[in-house]
Amino acid sequence: MTDDTDLNRAARALSRARAVLVLTGAGISAESGIPTFRGAGGLWEGFRAEELATPQAFAADPARVWRWYRWRQAQYGECEPNPGHAVIAQMEGAYERFLLATQNVDGLHHRAGNREMVEVHGTITRTRCSRCQRLSDWPEAIEEGEDPVPRCGSCEGLMRPHILWFGERYWTGTLERAYEFAHEADVCLVVGTSAQVWAPAQMALLAQQQGAFLIDVNPGATDISFSADVHLMGPAGELLPELWERAQRSPQEP
Ligand code: NAD
Ligand code: ZN
């Protein structure tokens, strides 16, 4: 468990910061009851996420992919943002310059109140036409036996979740915005990512090279925690409120 000195050092950095970049992964939502892919509970009807969240799986069987996403979306709907999400939403209001880059698709940061945000893997609150790319809201729930695949209102194409699948390229502008911000951040706070899927490790290290104080919040050790200025080892839902309270109590000397 994290000691007091580390918490205080991280709190001091946050209290002095003007520009804060927060990077989150599945771990921030673990205490809301959403399993991480690599944790227990990451299987659905015997399939792994890597077998369903791909363009190939959608082309082969769009109904199966949609049944899985409808199930996930219903699960997320039963979950609430936790105190870790709440702190990150408060940070957005507290700093002049703030950006959250999340790889989560669960929409919990938005529900907690964050708006200055890039959802680098998309979101389960939206769908996109696989033919004309038009974006729409998530479809209504359906009865058992109904076709689970929604159709596009303009071109009748198959709608897909607005989520970046394995093997797909990042949308133009999403990662770029976060990378740009990494250059000006005074603090980079990384929460709950194993850093295996995308480039948060790279982004966090870039921010650190450019002068940011790097904080990692994760009960486990990752590529980021090894390089971080402070690794707060424990659950985000407990550590972030403690950290934020100390940051607000810290004297704001330059
Ligand atoms: P991951 O499953 O690879 O790693 C999760 C990390 O969170 C681990 O390092 C783990 O030690 C840490 N963790 C676990 N409990 C924690 C807690 N209470 N507080 C802080 N950290 C905790 O997740 P990833 O790096 O986000 O990559 C998984 C991929 O799957 C991402 O691309 C993401 O889009 C997707 N995914 C999203 C969700 C979601 O939207 N909530 C859920 C599962 C997977
Ligand atoms: Zn269309």
What order do the SSEs take from the amino end to the carboxyl end, as H and E?
HEEEHHHHEHEEEEHEHEHEH
**Mean residue pLDDT:** 92
**Widest β-sheet, arrangement of strands:** 5-4-1-9-10-11
Shape: elongated
Rg over CA atoms, rounded to whole Å, is 19 Å
Q: Please indicate the percent range of residues in DSSP E strands (runs of 2 or more).
A: 15-25%
Q: Using DSSP, what is the number of strands?
A: 11
Q: Which terms would index this structure?
A:
single chain; 254 residues; alpha/beta; three-stranded antiparallel sheet; binds nicotinamide-adenine-dinucleotide; binds zinc ion
Describe this structure in words.
With 254 residues, this protein is α/β, with parallel strands linked by helices. Helices cover 38% and strands 19% of the residues. A 6-stranded parallel β-sheet has the order 5-4-1-9-10-11, sandwiched between helices. Strands 7-6-8 form a 3-stranded antiparallel β-sheet, covered by helices on one side. A hairpin with a 2-residue loop joins strand 2 and strand 3. Helix 1 (4-16) packs across helix 10. The mean pLDDT is 92. Zinc ion is lined by residues 129, 131-132, 134, 152, 154-155, 157.
Ordered list of secondary-structure elements with their pairings:
Layout: H1 4-16, E1 19-24, E2 43-44, E3 47-48, H2 49-52, H3 55-60, H4 62-77, H5 83-94, E4 97-102, H6 108-112, E5 117-119, E6 122-129, E7 135-137, E8 159-163, H7 174-184, E9 187-191, H8 200-209, E10 213-217, H9 223-227, E11 230-232, H10 236-249
Helix pairs in contact: 1-10, 5-10, 7-8
